[in-house]
Structure formats: C-alpha cells, structure tokens
Design a protein that fits this description.
The chain is an alpha+beta fold and about 250 residues long. The chain contains three helices and eleven strands; from the N terminus they run ααβββββββββββα. About 30% of the residues lie in helices and about 30% in strands. A five-stranded antiparallel β-sheet has the order 3-4-5-6-7, with helices on one face. A four-stranded antiparallel β-sheet has the order 9-8-10-11, with helices on one face. It has a two-stranded antiparallel sheet with strand order 1-2.
Amino acid sequence: MRKRTNAGRNGFTLMEVLAALAIAFVIILATTGLIHNVAREFDRGTRDVNEAERLMLAVERLAQDLGSARFVVWTTGSGPAVAFTAARASADAPAKVVFVGNGGVMAGPQGDEVVTLTIEPDGDVTRLVRRRSPWTGSRMHAEDVSPRDEVVLIEGKFNISFVFGRILSNGALEWSENWVDKSALPRFVRLILRDRRTGVDVLGETDFVVRADAPAACGRSDANPGCLTQALQAAAGAPGSGGKSP
C-alpha cells in the first residue's frame, strides 16, 4: 500500500499535465508572436534601407547623366536648337526631359547618346523612367529619337517633377518648368520628389549641375570669338556659317 502511494506521488496527475500543456501553448503563442513582430520590423527596416539605396543610386545616375550633357544642336520643328528639351505633362504625353550625354561604350558612332527621362503616372504610383537612343550627330532631327532600354530609376507614391535654372546677366538665378527650343543649356536641373502623404520633398531640392555651356569646338585655342554665337548655324550646316558641326 505504501509503495502504491509513493508511486502515485512520484508521477503527474491529469490536471497537472493539462496545466503544463496550457502553459507551454501560451509560451509558444507568445514566442511565435514575438518572432513574427521581429521579422516584420526587420523586413520593414530592410525594405526602407533598400528603397533608400535605390533612391541614392537613381540620384547618382541622374548626376552622371546631367553632368555629362553636351552642348550640341539638332533640328526641331522650329529649326536648329540646342539638344536639350523639357516639357511638362499634357493630356497626350507625360512630362519628359531629353538631352545628349556621355554614352560610354554602348553609345552610337558619335560616342554619345540621347537620354530620355520620362515621368509616368500609373494609378497611385509614379515612375521616373530612363531610356536611351543613339546620337547620330548634329544633323539629327528631334523626332528621330527612338528611346529604348527602359530602366525605372524611381518608383513610388511621389509627385515627381523637374525645374531648370539659368543664371541671368545680373547674377540672379531664374527657374523654369519648361526648356524648349533654347539656344543654351540650363545651368542647373532640380529634381523634386514630393511624398504625396506628407508633402515633404524627400530629396530636399536636389540640384544637378550641367557643366557644358558651349560647344566643344569653342574651347579650342584657335576658336574664333564668334564661335558661341555661330554655334547653331554652324552645327546645322547653314549656308554662310563658315564652320562645321562642333
């Protein structure tokens, strides 16, 4: 009889087993919730880092492209003009910036390429898309540009826009939302990336410097004093211009 009593005391009753299982179940649920929360916050943090990295890469790409913009001329519907144009969005077309820049090893025969930056809304998301086209020289017509090799630089719930700055004769800086049929390149290009929810400019008015302010030929030691004023006629091969395409 004493042995049976001792054996019963050394084991677990059904109630004790059920209580232990209940406690273990609560611990498992709590642990699972904790792991889920940690994983969610980690994923959110990783996603934020990845988005920030992609944004910085996009800014770096734009800085390279706009910094390499060339002072070259092409033919437009209004005649010869500097190959840098930017127009706001319309009912028929999205906002677009087009210019000629350094194309590297993948460029056309001139060593440069036509870069097209397009702001494309798609529902709640807006994309800044980069495309390229071969630059065939100053006799190229603006309508001959056939952009390809699409790369999405920026994508998200943003209001994306560009403005273009030039330095006036009095030293003041003037900004414009369009740049069409101009005889010079803008000095600065500002990218505005505004969060739709907060209205904050995520990039804080990031400005890109356009370094070129004259055709390459005007930088030569034997360039004539009227090189800059003659650039449009010379590049377009106008009669009596007395020059060649820069």
